[in-house]
């Protein structure tokens, strides 16, 4: 029998039941629903709203249901319950009788679902957070082993200036650190209990909302009952944080895809994290990186869907809000999967240091250092820039690098050139000369690593 059966004279059309039902996807919140119901029942008993004996029966029954769901003795198959809340309540009443009907005293499914989704997202946010930390740790380990691995840095996908693999890869660690910050900020706003808001206007029962909030480890209670049941900002904010995580993974995936190509040849993925071709036996494809890149569009789409669902809703609760769950659940599932696989793919990746160095010797990525050399000799930067540009053109015409030019050839462009130009344009010297905070020198990268390690210790 439906919870609203007293008002209606006709049975609901089966198609409407199916259309209206959310059990198929909100069943994943059963732990949170039961946890919230136990806290609510405990409070009802403490406040004298229901008998202590009924509270004991309810809590015992709920714990038994949780155990049976965990052990597979109870399943959601063939249930005609509309949602997880009705499923639990109906099962509880079936087991303990009329005491089970008292559980819903002083609450509505509106504040119940608002509670469950906060509890569920809080748990999932912490899992995502740990996966991001794990990926940062993988990046840190690679950086520590490649402090002197010189490679080209790029702008416009053109070789620009020399950096190290450590410096390059730690840029992604910084992105992920910001992602941790966004997750932490999201949790601060998410972590308030809406239970006690009722359908929209609270209740006449003397509920102790603060007690329930403390029991469920919330920071406090929501301050407006209408906002309490209709707020989904925290869902959208979490979805936004997940979209940025995936965007960072997608950018990193693009690097890996390029670096694995024959044209770059900077790394090779482990066989366990690659796939082959059904027709071309020589192929080794970076499918994980490509799927991460592809799934980013899916997660971003879920964020847009959530924003669109909420943009025109009046207060308070509307059934449209049921659409929040599949979108956020899908974003969580895919982000967690991508973080886990990407970390393992990166951890087992073999970087080809010699190929990186060879690529660094091409493209005149030490041209800025050549210009800086002339500036240190007293030449204005703009003049030094022009002379170095002419040097590049000369080298291209004569199929040479800066290092292959003689001092006499260099003096043809400026008398300021001496033998000390060659140490100045040596790649590792170019890198280590950039010791400014945040730069690619070994000294600067060590400082960056120290800061990241401190962050990781505090973040765990």
Question: How does this model look, in words?
Answer:
- The protein is mainly α.
- 61% of the residues lie in helices and 5% in strands.
- The protein is built from 19 helices and 6 strands.
- It has helices spanning 14-20, 23-26, 30-46, 52-71, 84-96, 109-144, 165-190, 209-215, 225-230, 233-260, 287-310, 324-347, 353-360, 367-376, 381-397, 407-411, 421-425, 427-432, 442-459, and strands at residues 150-155, 158-164, 192-193, 220-221, 267-268, 350-351.
- The strands form 3 sheets. The chain has a two-stranded antiparallel sheet with strand order 1-2. It has a two-stranded parallel ribbon with strand order 3-4.
- Strand 3, helix 8 and strand 4 (220-221) form a beta-alpha-beta unit.
- Helix 3 runs antiparallel to helix 4 (52-71), helix 6 runs parallel beside helix 10 (233-260) and helix 10 (233-260) runs antiparallel to helix 11 (287-310).
- The radius of gyration is 30 Å and the shape is elongated.
- The relative contact order is 0.10.
- The model has no long low-confidence stretch (mean pLDDT 95).
Structural class: mainly alpha
Based on Cα principal axes, name the global outline: elongated
- Indicate the proportion of strand residues: under 5%
- H/E element order: HHHHHHEEHEHEHHEHHEHHHHHHH
What is the count of β-strands? 6
Largest sheet: 2 strands, antiparallel
**Total number of helices:** 19
State Rg: 30 Å
Poorly predicted ranges (pLDDT <50, ≥5 residues)? none
Percentage of residues assigned to helices: 55-70%
- Quote the average pLDDT: 95
In whole angstroms, how far apart are the ends? 48 Å
Strand order of the largest sheet: 1-2
